Amino acid sequence: MKKLIVNADDFGLHTEVNRAIIKGHVEGCLTSTSLVAAGAAVEEAAQLACENPTLGIGAHLTLVAERPVLSPEKIPSLVTAEGRLLPDHASFIKHFVKGEIRLTELYNECDAQITRLEQLGVKLTHMDSHQHLHVLPWIIDICLELAKRHGLHKMRLPAEPYLFTGAYPAPLARKLSRGGLTFCAHLARHKAMASHMLMPSHFFGMLAGGHMEEKYFLEVLHLLPEGSSEIMIHPGMDNKTLGSVYDWQYHWEEELYSAISPRVMQYLVENHVQLISFKELADE
User: Fold this and answer.
1) pLDDT at position 235 over 80
2) Which of 10, 118, 217, 241 is 20 to 30 Å apart from 145, CA to CA?
3) pTM above 0.85, yes or no
């Protein structure tokens, strides 16, 4: 049996992302999403989550690129002089390796993010993170401790197979970066399993992240293995508007279309792929 979670990241980041995620859920195969506690549109997203109880909602722990939930004065090792989180994963890892990130501050900020979502009335189904930082050594230990504290028993494991391309023409640098992430995810898997966390057996969407157009989405489906899988996507309603705020060069509208594509929906039905969220994820 093939079971599939289609998870949209960055719920709460922008109203155009929120609108796309709900559209993908109501009209397509999107079953799950990950909510950014400090996102500019988090209150709207929380309300939409309450109005769409069949949509699984995860905590998208965010340690880079956005503003923190705690005041910058409480987490000085995590923020820039302007009071925002470090700009990206490369900057974060550089500071982390140099010993400049205080783990107590990291714990407190992540704890505050989960608490913020709970206070908004969101019933969380799982945990993951922006730019997948939760699987890094030492950070995974903090995340597992927080999962236990908040009663979370499921998480993303971004271990896309080393040789998988899904026909996406990624440059070598991105393939190497994906390889490093997959290696860290495999290390994190052992600790997560020891903590009795449930994770999908397979993960796709890293290499083509932000560019998961219909043809690449279908390619993943054609190669989907038995058991449970997660496909990560980043849908949005307006490429121009979102591109003016975020310089990620994502194909937001195209990723939304992948989730509602008639060809995708037909393939899922004809090949008996069972759509689930993290809420329905069970031991295999």
Assistant:
1) yes
2) 10
3) yes
DSSP assignment string, 127-171:
EEEGGGGGGSTTHHHHHHHHHHHHT--BB------TT--TT----
Single-letter residue type at 282: A
The C-alpha atoms of residue 283 and residue 274 are separated, in whole angstroms, by 15
Which residue ranges form the domains of the chain, and what is each CATH number? 2-280 (3.20.20.370)
State pLDDT tens for residues 21-65: 999 999 999 999 999 999 999 999 999 999 999 999 999 999 999
Helix 42-51 and helix 15-27, axial crossing angle in degrees, nearest 10? 20
pLDDT tens-place string over residues 84-122: 999 998 999 999 999 999 999 999 999 999 999 999 999
Spatial separation of the C-alpha atoms in residues 7 and 100, rounded to whole Å: 32
Considering just the CA atoms, what is the radius of gyration of the chain in Å? 18
DSSP track, 37-102: TT-TTHHHHHHHHHH-TTSEEEEEE--BSS--SS-GGG-GGGB-TTSSBBSSHHHHHHHHHTT-S-
